[in-house]
C-alpha cells in the first residue's frame, strides 16, 4: 500500500480514541442522568396525581362534617324533640311547626332534598315533602340498625336512583339519656359531588375525577385502594389512575392519559436526544481537530523526509506546537544538520584522500629535481661570493628553494590521511613544548605569551604531535599578525561538551571578506605563505571530532577557538 490504511492512520486512531474517551463518560452520565430525571419526573407526576386525589377526597369529606354539624343541631332542636315526645291525643300542631323549620333548612341548603323525623318505633312524625316523602320502609336496614345502635350521626352508602345519586343521613334524638326518635334526611349528593368532580383544577386536558358507587361496573374498580398510580385500559384507551375510599360515598378515582402525564418525560427524552447528537457532533469535531493537531508533527516529518529524499537537502521542520512537537522538530533538524556535516566530512575526506594521493606523487616527483637544484646552488653561491650582484641572486634562489621545500612538506601533510592516537595531555606541558620551538623568535620580538590554564587537573584528550602542530601553526600566525612587544594569549577552559582552547592576538585582525576563506587550502595573504597552515589546522581538529573557528577580539585582533570533545 502506498499510504496508511484507515486502521493504521494516526489521525483516525487518535480520533477514535479521543471520541471514545469523551463519549464513554458522557454516555454513562447521560444515561444515568436521564434515568434519574425520568424517575424524578415520574415520581413527581405520581405524587401530583395523588395530591389531586387527596384534594378531591378532602373536599368530598368536608360535606360530611357540615352535614354532621347540621344534624347535631337538628337532634336537639325543640321542634324535632317536641314532635317526637308529644302525647298522641295532644292537639298541639308541633308536627307542622317542625315541618316548617325543616323546610327552611332544605330551601337554604340544596343537599337536603327532604328532611323527616321519626319516633323510636320508626313512625314518621313529620316530613318536609309531600311527594317523595321519606318512608321508614325505604331506609336501608344497615342504616337503621346503625342509628338505633349509636344514637349519633350516621350516613348510609350512596346509591343511584335514576340519574340522581343519593344517600341518607340521620341522627338520634336524645331525651333523658335515651333515644326517643330520629331525624333523617335524603341527601342529593349530585349537588356536592358534581362541582367537585367537574373542577378541572390539576386535571390537565385529559384528566377526570369520578365517584364509583357500590355495584358500579367500571374498569377503574381494579385500581388498588390508596396504592401507587397504575395503568388500566378503559375501552380502547389507556389510563393512569389512583383510587381511594370516601366514607359514605364509595370509591373516588382520579385518572389521566399517560401520554399527557408523562409528556415532560417525552420532552426530556427528545431534548436529551438532540443534546446528545449536538454533543456527539461537538466531541467528534473537537476530537478530529485535536487528532489533526496531534498528528501534524508526524505528517510534517513524513513530508519533510519525502522532500529531502527528493533532493531538497535544505528542508527543515519548523518548531511549533507543543513542547514535545518542538523537541521532535529540533532533534530532526539537528539530525539533518549532523548528516549534512557528516556528508561534508566524508566528501572532504574523499577529496583529501584524492589530494593526498596526487600530492604524494607530485612531492615525490618534485623532491629529486629540487634536491638537485639545491645541491648545485651551493657551489654556485660559493663561486659568486665575491660578486655582490650574483651573490644576491644566489641567495634569492636558495630562499625560493627553501620555500618550495616548505610548501611541499605542508602539501604532503595536508594530503596525507591522518590516524590520530589521542592520549591524555596536560595542557601546560603541551604549550611548553610548542613555545620551546618558537622561543628564539618570541624573544627576538620581545613577546611573552600569556598562558591561561583553567582546566586544572583535567587533561586534554588529543594526539600529542598533531596538537603541537595545531598550536604551533596558530602561534606562528599570531606572531606574523602582531608587532614587536605584541600580546599573544593561549588559554584553555572546560565546557559542557569538552574543552575549549583559544589562541588570541592583538594584531590587525582578519578582514571580513577573507574570514570565510582562511581555512581553504592554498589561500594566504602572507608573503611567503603556503596557504596550507590553517587548512591543516582545520583538518587535524576535525579528525579529533572538534571544530575550529576565527572571531574578532574587541579592541582589535583575532581569536582562534578550538572545541574538542571531552575524554570518554
Task: Give the fraction of residues assigned to helices.
Answer: 40-55%
Count of helical segments?
A: 13
Class derived from helix and strand content: alpha+beta
How many β-strands, per DSSP?
A: 17
Content of β-strand: 15-25%
* Low-pLDDT segments: 85-95
Determine the N-to-C terminus distance: 45 Å
* Cα Rg: 62 Å
Largest sheet: 6 strands, antiparallel
- Helix/strand order, N-terminal first: HHHEEHEEEEHEEEEHHHHEHEEHEEHHEE
Q: Taking all residues together, what is the mean pLDDT? A: 77
Indicate the overall shape.
rod-shaped
Helices and strands in order:
Elements lengths: L9 H65 L3 H8 L8 H15 L3 E8 L4 E4 L13 H10 L2 E3 L3 E3 L2 E12 L2 E11 L1 H9 L9 E5 L17 E5 L2 E10 L3 E7 L1 H4 L1 H47 L13 H61 L4 H28 L7 E3 L1 H18 L5 E4 L6 E3 L1 H18 L6 E8 L2 E8 L6 H4 L17 H11 L3 E6 L5 E8 L3
Parallel strand pairs: 12-14
Antiparallel strand pairs: 1-2, 1-6, 3-5, 4-5, 5-6, 7-10, 8-9, 9-10, 11-13, 14-15, 15-17, 16-17
